[in-house]
């Protein structure tokens, strides 16, 4: 079964006079990324590949969660994830995920919220309700598909296995 992990970047700073692409994480975001890394380390189905937006806040999220969880991934930085909508995200998965069974994407809203919600056709109804309501920073959705790898998956027929927000980890 193929698994897709969709992680919105952790909370970032505003008003520093930087372009949006260059905004760093704030202290709250750094703490949330560390908590998410520790949570992922406990998951026995941790992804093997990370496809990460090139924005500063996504790269920092990845670095912190990797260190905090003692995790190791193959990493691909994908500029097209910055500001990507659902169709672009799907294209990136099909093109870049290759034969990987489980992949973590780190990117941005509204694309990640839309992708997760459109993909979640089954699973726990309460998790789907929470997913539909809001997709806060550093939120992770884990979706499972009836396929051996993501490039063969019907990305509109997933089961939502988990929906984890930073407030769920405190």
UniProtKB/TrEMBL annotation:
Domain of life (superkingdom): Bacteria
SUPFAM superfamilies linked: Phosphoglycerate mutase-like (SSF53254)
Gene3D superfamilies for the chain: Phosphoglycerate mutase-like
InterPro entries (alphabetical): His_Pase_superF_clade-1 (IPR013078), His_PPase_superfam (IPR029033)
CDD domains in alphabetical order: HP_PGM_like (cd07067)
Protein name (database record): Phosphohistidine phosphatase
């Amino acid at each position: 079964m193929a698994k897709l992990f969709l992680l919105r970047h952790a909370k970032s700073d505003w008003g520093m006079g930087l372009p949006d692409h260059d905004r760093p994480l704030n202290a709250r975001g750094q703490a949330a990324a560390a908590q998410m890394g520790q949570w992922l380390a406990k998951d026995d189905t941790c992804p093997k590949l990370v496809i990460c937006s090139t924005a500063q806040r996504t790269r920092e999220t990845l670095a912190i969660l990797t260190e905090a969880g003692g995790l190791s991934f193959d990493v691909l930085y994908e500029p097209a994830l910055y500001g990507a909508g659902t169709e672009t995200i799907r294209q990136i998965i099909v093109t870049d995920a290759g034969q990987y069974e489980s992949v973590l994407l780190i990117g941005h809203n509204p694309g990640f919220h839309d992708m997760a919600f459109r993909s979640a056709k089954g699973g726990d109804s309460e998790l789907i309700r929470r997913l539909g309501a809001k997709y806060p920073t550093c939120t992770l959705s884990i979706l499972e598909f009836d396929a051996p790898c993501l490039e063969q998956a019907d990305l509109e027929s997933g089961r939502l296995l988990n929906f984890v927000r930073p407030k769920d980890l405190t």
